[in-house]
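ok so I'm stuck.
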Amino acid sequence: MFATIVIDLNPNLVRVGPLLITWHGVFSVLGILAAARVAQILLKPEGISADRVYDLAVWMVIGGLIGARLLYVWENYQQFVGIWQKILYVNEGGISQWGGIFGGLVGGYLWCWRSRIDYRLVLDVAGPANALGFAIGRIGDIVNGEHHAIDSNLPWAVQYVNEQTLGEPGRTVHPEVAYELVFNVIVFVTAIVTWPLFKRRLPVGVTGLIWLSVYGIGRFALSFLRKDSLVFGLRQAQWASLAMVAVSAVAIAIWMLRASRTAPPGEERVQEPEQATA
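replied:
not stuck anymore, here's the structure
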């Protein structure tokens, strides 16, 4: 036991009447706010005001929550059989990050279509913004233990012992969500440091797809430490990761080819004023 990290934390923070506030919910909200702030800073030079970014964030959050919950329910439908009303209890945990990503991107696309703003600008900021938001959100996952990992005897393995935990008491497992937290911090820091260079050298939209793909590759690898159900030999999150990487690769190739045909080699990217101005 001296080589095991024991987590004896109640995942439930406080109950106010019928409303249960959990650490998972608190850090999810903090992650959303952090991602919105990053998007606000990065989109300001594009002429998109802070108010419009917050409007965009609402659309992406709604789309993300719907997508995250629906994918989680689909992956864990046995938990809801006969008690389908629990689908609405998002505050108690139970969301799929890939569902949140795809749902958020759909919500962002709808907002851009409605606002007549180039969707690729949103893709560019989605990479670093989401990485920071995911990192913060994973703190809540570490507390509640709902993402079950495989057994481990490493010195930093964890064991959940609280009677309210969503983990598996008695088992010593990899802190897989903690690995994801560290990975997302690395992605965020690297994306921010390289942001000016990538924005000068790459067509609009490519920067964001690169970092979303990097996240997908990391999530694919780390998912081998999860106990999620297998579908055709891989976990569902891994198939989603492959889909993200494949779609991004095709989009990047198309946009890079178009850019090479319309601008001399080495020329800095120029935004289209009518699309880049809100």
